[in-house]
TrEMBL record, chain B:
It is a multi-pass membrane protein. Belongs to the binding-protein-dependent transport system permease family. LivHM subfamily. It comes from Limnochorda pilosa. Pfam families: BPD_transp_2. This is ABC transporter permease.
Length: 343, 301
C-alpha cells in the first residue's frame, strides 16, 4: 500500500470499518459462537458418562451456585444494587421446600414455583423499606437481614426449622416413576434448569426492562430523567432475583437432603457476591465461569485440603488486581469500569 | 435495677471493644470510601498475637501484671499495624482507581486469607487466654458486681480513644487526615502526601483493633479464628450507627451498640441478641441512613 498522509489514512480506515467484511468470513465468524455453544452443550450432556460420580456431584453444586449467581446477578450486576444478603432468599426457598413437603406432602416439582414465590414475596417485603439506601448502606442492611434470618433459623421458632440441626427432606424428585436422586439424573435436572434460566435471562437482558435496569446502574439520575421508575425497577430486580434464588433453594434441599443454618452463613453470601464480581458483573456467561471458579477450583485443590481456603482468598485478591472487570466481562459494563471510582 | 446496672456495665465493656474496632472501619471508610472487610480479621489476629506473647514469654514472672499487660498490648498493636500496612500495600493500593466492588471483593479475599492463616497457625480449636495477666478482682457495690477487667478495658479504651481524638482534632497530622478524607486531589495540592496518610490510617486502625482483640481475649478468656467475622461485623455496624467516616460517631456507636446488645440479652433473649442488634441497625438505616452523628451530605449519585 502506498504511503498516505495520516488524515487520509484515517479516512481510509473509517471507510474500511464501515464496509461489511466479505460474506464468507462473516458467515464463518457468525458460526463460531453457536458452534462453541453447541460443543459446550454436547460436552455437558455427555459429561456424567465421562467422569466419576464425585465430579458429577461437584457439577451439580456448580449448577446450583450458577443459578444463585444468575439470580444475584440480576440485582448486583444488572441494576448495581449491593446485596450481600442473598443467601437469605436461598434459605427461605430451601426451608420452605422441606417444611411444606413434610407438612402437606407437596411434590417437589410443585414446590419449585411455591418456594420461588415465597422467597420473592419475602424479597419484596424485606427490600421495600431499604431499597432506597445507596451503595454501602444497602450492603450492610442486606448483611443485617441475612444475619437476622440466620439467628432466627438457629433459634428454631415454633419448632419449624429444627435449630442448628436443621430439617431433613424425605422426598425426592420423581419423573415417570424414576427417582432423580442418582447423581447423573440430578445433574440433568440442575443443568436443564440452568439452561432454561440462562435462556430466560438472555431474553430479559434484551428486553425493555433489562435495558432500563442497565440505565439505572449506569446513572440513576439520568434514568429517572428518562422516565424510568427507578424504585420500581430496583424492586422488580430484587423480587425476581429473590424468587429465582428461592427456586434454586428447592434444588439445593433435594440435593443436600438436610437443610441447616450452616449452609446459609455470611461466608456463603460472600461466595455468591464473589461469583458475580469474579465472573464479570452483568455478564451471564461470566456468572457460569465465576461459579465454576468458586465451586470447582476448590475441589481441584482438595489435595491441599487445609491450605485451599488460603489459596482461595489470595486468588480473590490477585484476580481483582489483575482482572478487575471479571473473567468474562459484559460488553455493556465496560463503560462504567473505564471511569473513575465513584466518590 | 441490679440487672440493669450490671448489663449496663457489661454493655459498656463490650461496647468499648466494639468502639475501638469501629474506629478502624470508620477511618478507612472516611479516607478511602472502602469497607475494609479484613479489619475484623486484623482484630482477631491481635487477640492471637496477644495470646502467643502471653503464653510463650516469661513476662509473667519478670514483670508485675499491669506492666506485662501493657507490654503485651503494645506488642500486639505493633505486630498488627505492620500487618495492616502489608494488607494496604498488597490488596488495596493497586485498586485505588478501580471500581468500588472490586476493592470490596479484594477485601473479602484478604479476610478469608487471614482467617485461614490464623487457623493454620494456631489450630481450629478455641484457645484459652491465660488468666494471670489480670488478677480476677471483683467488687460488689450495692449488690452490683463489677470486675477489675471491666474497669481496665474501659480505661484502656478511653485512653486510646482520647489519644486518637486529640491527634485527629489538634495536630497537624490530624488536619492532614481530615483534609484527605474530604478530597484526595485537593489535599494533594496542599502538599499532603495522600499515600502516606492512607498508610497511616492502616497503621492506626489495625493497632486499635489489636488492642481491642487483646482486651476482648482477656475479658472472655476464649478466642477463636472465626471471631473476626462476627465481632468485625458488629463493630462495622457500630461505625454505621454512629455515622460512618465520623470518628466520635464510631466511639458513640460502639458504646451504644454494646449497651443495647447486653440490655437486649438481659431483658429479651440472649439467643436473639445478634438479631436484635441488626434489627436496630436496619431501623436506624431506614430512619436516618447517615447514622446518629453523620451529617446529611448532598451526595453526587
Amino acid at each position: 500500500m502506498a504511503r498516505t498522509a495520516p488524515r487520509e489514512r484515517l479516512a481510509q480506515e473509517e471507510t474500511v470499518g464501515v464496509r461489511p467484511p466479505r460474506p464468507s468470513t462473516a458467515r464463518a465468524r457468525g458460526l463460531i459462537g453457536p458452534a462453541l455453544t453447541l460443543g459446550a452443550v454436547v460436552l455437558g450432556v455427555a459429561a456424567p458418562w465421562l467422569v466419576s460420580d464425585y465430579w458429577v456431584d461437584v457439577a451439580v453444586f456448580w449448577g446450583i451456585y450458577a443459578l444463585l449467581g444468575l439470580s444475584l446477578n440480576l440485582i448486583v450486576g444488572e441494576v448495581g444494587l449491593f446485596n450481600m444478603g442473598h443467601t437469605a432468599f436461598f434459605a427461605i426457598g430451601a426451608y420452605a421446600t422441606v417444611i411444606l413437603n413434610q407438612a402437606w406432602g407437596l411434590s417437589l416439582w410443585l414446590l419449585i414455583p411455591v418456594a420461588g414465590f415465597l422467597a420473592a414475596a419475602a424479597g419484596y417485603g424485606l427490600s421495600r423499606p431499604i431499597i432506597h439506601l445507596r451503595g454501602d448502606y444497602l450492603l450492610i442492611a442486606t448483611i443485617g437481614l441475612n444475619e437476622i434470618l440466620r439467628v432466627a433459623l438457629l433459634n428454631n421458632p415454633r419448632g419449624l426449622t429444627g435449630g442448628p440441626n436443621g430439617v431433613i427432606l424425605l422426598d425426592q424428585f420423581r419423573l415417570f416413576g424414576y427417582g432423580l436422586d442418582r447423581p447423573e439424573r440430578f445433574y440433568y435436572l440442575v443443568w436443564g434448569a440452568v439452561g432454561l434460566v440462562v435462556w430466560g435471562l438472555l431474553r430479559l437482558q434484551r428486553s425493555r426492562i433489562g435495558r432500563a435496569w442497565n440505565c439505572v446502574r449506569e446513572d440513576e439520575v439520568a434514568a429517572e430523567a428518562m422516565g424510568i421508575d427507578v424504585r420500581q425497577a430496583k424492586l422488580l430486580a430484587f423480587v425476581l432475583g429473590a424468587g429465582l434464588a428461592g427456586a434454586a433453594g428447592t434444588l439445593f434441599a433435594a440435593k443436600m437432603v438436610v437443610v441447616s443454618p450452616d449452609s446459609f452463613t455470611f461466608m456463603e453470601a460472600v461466595i455468591l457476591f464473589a461469583i458475580v464480581i469474579l465472573g464479570g458483573m452483568g455478564s451471564i456467561p461470566g456468572v457460569l465461569v465465576g461459579s465454576a471458579a468458586m465451586m470447582v477450583l476448590p475441589e481441584l485443590l482438595r489435595n491441599f485440603a487445609q491450605y485451599r481456603m488460603l489459596f482461595f482468598g489470595a486468588a480473590m485478591v490477585v484476580m481483582m488486581i489483575f482482572r478487575p472487570q471479571g473473567l468474562w466481562p459484559s460488553r455493556r459494563w465496560k463503560a462504567q469500569l473505564a471511569g473513575e471510582r465513584e466518590p | 435495677m441490679t440487672l440493669f446496672v450490671e448489663q449496663l456495665a457489661n454493655g459498656l465493656t463490650v461496647g468499648a471493644v466494639y468502639a475501638l474496632v469501629a474506629l478502624g472501619y470508620t477511618m478507612v471508610y472516611g479516607v478511602m470510601k472502602l469497607i475494609n472487610f479484613a479489619h475484623g480479621e486484623l482484630f482477631m489476629l491481635g487477640a492471637y498475637l496477644g495470646f502467643t506473647v502471653l503464653v510463650s514469654t516469661a513476662l509473667g514472672g519478670a514483670l508485675p501484671a499491669g506492666a506485662a499487660l501493657l507490654v503485651i498490648i503494645l506488642l500486639a498493636m505493633g505486630g498488627v499495624a505492620l500487618l495492616g500496612l502489608t494488607v494496604e500495600r498488597v490488596a488495596y493500593r493497586p485498586l485505588q482507581r478501580a471500581n468500588r466492588l472490586t476493592a470490596v471483593v479484594s477485601a473479602l479475599g484478604v479476610s478469608i486469607f487471614l482467617q485461614n492463616s490464623a487457623m493454620l497457625l494456631w489450630g481450629p480449636r478455641y484457645r484459652a487466654y491465660p488468666g494471670w495477666a489480670v488478677p480476677d478482682v471483683r467488687w460488689s457495690v450495692a449488690g452490683v458486681h463489677v470486675g477489675l477487667m471491666q474497669v481496665l478495658i474501659l480505661a484502656v479504651a478511653l485512653v486510646l480513644m482520647l489519644g486518637l481524638y486529640y491527634v485527629i482534632q489538634r495536630t497537624f497530622l490530624g488536619a492532614a487526615i481530615r483534609a484527605t478524607a474530604i478530597d484526595h486531589d485537593t489535599a494533594r495540592l496542599m502538599g499532603i502526601n495522600v499515600d502516606r496518610i492512607i498508610q497511616l490510617i492502616f497503621v492506626i486502625g489495625p493497632a486499635l483493633g489489636a488492642a481491642a482483640g487483646v482486651l476482648l481475649g482477656l475479658y472472655y478468656r476464649q478466642i477463636h479464628f472465626t471471631m473476626g467475622w462476627s465481632y468485625g461485623l458488629k463493630a462495622f455496624t457500630a461505625a454505621i450507627m454512629g455515622g460512618i467516616g465520623n470518628i466520635p460517631g464510631a466511639m458513640v456507636g460502639g458504646l451504644l451498640l454494646g449497651t443495647l446488645e447486653m440490655l437486649g440479652a438481659g431483658y429479651l433473649s440472649a439467643a436473639w441478641k445478634d438479631a436484635f442488634v441488626f434489627a436496630i441497625l436496619i431501623l436506624l438505616l431506614i430512619v436516618r441512613p447517615t447514622g446518629l452523628l453523620g451529617e446529611r451530605v448532598a451526595e453526587k449519585v
